[in-house]
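Much of what follows relies on a compact textual record of a protein's fold. Here is one such record, which you should read through line by line:
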Amino acid sequence: MDRTQLEQHLTSFRLGCQNAGYPVNDFRLTEAFPGVSGSSFIIDIREEWIGTMSCSAALDILLGMLWKTTTEDIRKKIFCFRLNTKNTLRNAS
């Protein structure tokens, strides 16, 4: 499964987050192991609401929604989440 296919499969995850009040608009997939065929992906999420809670609380929300909205095959393609607020990224760029 390539990046484009995985992004399509994660549409329900993003919609579920939006409906729960935790939008995932700034979203990117990055290969966990670039150049390796069949590599899993890192989900980069950059949203202000992430800065309003602990990292573990944000992960609880995101992982819970991932389990509700995706299949096991899709979840196997996710290596990890990378979470930042928009301000953090502006300072880091």
